[in-house]
Specification:
With 95 residues, the protein is of the alpha/beta class. It has one domain. It has a 3-stranded parallel sheet with strand order 1-2-3. It is globular. About 6% of the residues have low confidence.
Amino acid sequence: MITWTGDNSATWNHLRMTTPQLLNLGLSGFSMAGADVGGFAGSPPADLLTKWLEVAAFQPIDRDHSPRARGAVRCEWTARSAKRYAGATSKNDTV
């Protein structure tokens, strides 16, 4: 059975709550649990979505549910973010 943490919001506070919620679910017998990465409600800023994706890499199940995760905008943003994270480009470079 897969369990979700519920409808969260695109806020830093909800990101902070994700890991303790998933640990508690795991201890309660729900090992396949996940959260809506980026938040179900609202659109996260780029830095919040980046951090949320980094944390989600260590979760059993996750899905990027944020509005920012859809379409060409995400592809461009993801490529730019990944390059910046790797130190390949500066903040003002284009993809």
